[in-house]
Amino acid sequence: MGYVTSHGRVIPNPIVDDGDEQAFCSTCAFGSVCTARGVDKIALRELHCLVEHVGNYRPGEAIFRTGERFGAIYAVRQGTVKTRLVDIEGRELVLGFYLPGELVGLNAIHPEAYPCDAVALDTVEVCRFSFPALATLSTRVPGIQQELFRRLSKDIGNAALLAGDYSADERLAAFLIGLGRRYAERGFPAEALHLAMSRGDIANYLRLAAETVSRVLRRFQDQGLIRVDGRDVAIARPAELFELARPILQR
Amino acid sequence: MGYVTSHGRVIPNPIVDDGDEQAFCSTCAFGSVCTARGVDKIALRELHCLVEHVGNYRPGEAIFRTGERFGAIYAVRQGTVKTRLVDIEGRELVLGFYLPGELVGLNAIHPEAYPCDAVALDTVEVCRFSFPALATLSTRVPGIQQELFRRLSKDIGNAALLAGDYSADERLAAFLIGLGRRYAERGFPAEALHLAMSRGDIANYLRLAAETVSRVLRRFQDQGLIRVDGRDVAIARPAELFELARPILQR
DNA sequence: CGCCTGCGCTGATCCACATCAATGCATGCG
DNA sequence: CGCATGCATTGATGTGGATCAGCGCAGGCG
User: Fold this and answer.
1) Which of the 8 DSSP states describes residue A188?
2) Is residue A82, in this structure, part of any structural domain at all?
């Protein structure tokens, strides 16, 4: 089984352990495939061969850019990635944030070109999966195909969530709860968040003004729901915050 | 090649021809797969076996409902389908509209249950594809797998489009242009639209009030961009309408 | 026929959030 | 150091579209 590292103490920036031949990256997007019963060792080794570690993007550096020919999807290993569009007038539209273990680039399969930029928010490392190779492999390993289908399907649902006409309070609450859940999925504490992105990025992503994000966070803190210290946010009353986010999250 | 029907005259409600063993439904979601070089006849026959025609849903009837166990995706053959959520207080949230040839239910793969209702807006016929069977088949027919990946990926992009904070004018313009394009993709005229959905549904989908939809359509007509006759909309100046929609459509 | 119901349109009012503007506070750098 | 830059916060003002209310019109039905 290889060695297992404890994650609990790492808070600000979760780091994915490297794993080994057997366990692969333990928090990787394909972790569930690799550790699943029935996936033969050879397929797992092929997935290993196929993957390519790419490392040390600095804040602001692009993993891929709008319009580049689509060739691979990326799993975040360390750090946080944002995807965004920049329109002709230079205005930015933030599409999403990706934490360690999550897959970036799935929306590029159809147009066969990346429809957005993927930009590192802090120090970022990723795993690169050549998509043609991955698709070929997944015809032989149903578990991988299934995982890809699930990831794609999940992203459709997530994208639709944000589209509703929700209030600023609902959006912020859902954003924080959602981020916490995603950390928790990978084994990190759900109530001590570090926001790798600026207020402006959050606002842009939630379709609010940066000032509104400031004010709502402030009010949440005054109400005792959260504690804010710069980019560190502690969720003090998860249940009440969830109650605010319910219109978006729970259906 | 079988016989080819001319579509040009059909305006209000495009009807997909049945096709035959060779051509399958000519406007079907999997048309490109079936007609592609290299797809062997046996695979095509298997796809035929797998599909199940389900017909004559009346307006308001559900093809599937929120929470039902996911078992199949559906291709619209005739009519228009809307997907929607209904929250606890009975408020509706329209997620999308599906025209003949489009696939409904892709967002259900991940949760393994339908995350929304699919409701017929007029007389609707669909093709039912058992998803487990389709996934199995697609391990043997790369073209089908590829097509599924593409469709899923496309839906991610589409869902993200609506999420921006656009004006009512931009939204309506993009909605009309988008609808026209989708008709055109299936061989129907792009400038003579019949809206199967009510103003309320459009407004809900675009996150506007029904009154706003009325007013904007009225103004578009006054400006000579479109001609509105109840649920029939003719796009008089496609280029200018596109110009309005550019912030959403063109990137 | 008269009545009801659903849908679409229009005008008046209101409000959540954007926008504008100013300030504080880090960090970096010549 | 002195200055510039970027990010976050707070207050004052403006506005796009929601909400509320009323009306017209068509279709269905007893």
Assistant:
1) S
2) yes
